[in-house]
Design brief:
With 201 residues, the chain is an alpha/beta fold. 33% of the residues lie in helices and 16% in strands.
Length: 201
Amino acid sequence: MDKFTTLTGVAAPYPVINIDTDMIIPKDYLKTIKRTGLSVGLFAESRFNEDGSEKPDFVLNKPAYRNAEILVAGDNFGCGSSREHAPWALLDFGIRCVISTSFADIFYNNCFKNGILPIVVTPDELEKLLDDADRGSNSKMTVDLETQEIKGPDGGTIHFDIDPFRKHCLMNGLDDIALTLEKATSIDTYEGKLGETRPWA
């Protein structure tokens, strides 16, 4: 998993509430267990017409936001089913940070496990960030995980809270497997002693 320390990128405004995981990645794209190639399915029903052509009014189809790395979204983002393909699709598109007033618990946890930083802000702060993100190519923001700050294009700063353990994992690129491997020496020592004292185990 890639480390997340400081991210500076274009922020796309998507002020739609109750975006569920089926809207993020429709069920037609769940046949694979690969984490790559899913960006084509990201918001597919909102991004594309039935013939596969792009809907020009959808935010990520607009030239200024095609390379967005931050998504400023409406309340209750990631609700619905628990599919981990949702953060995979966001990450494959290039989005490393999602900002909202609230997230569904499972989606929120899956983001951290896949190197995406979900940030919870107040409604007033979200309104300011949506205004900043609505500036097209001038909507660049900086998200500093070390200082826990979001800096807008005009220099305004918003502080956000995050669980210290999750912060540590993101900053060091540690997913569940990497966390286990950090204890590899202790695990080997324990298994060695177990083999000596309980050879039948």
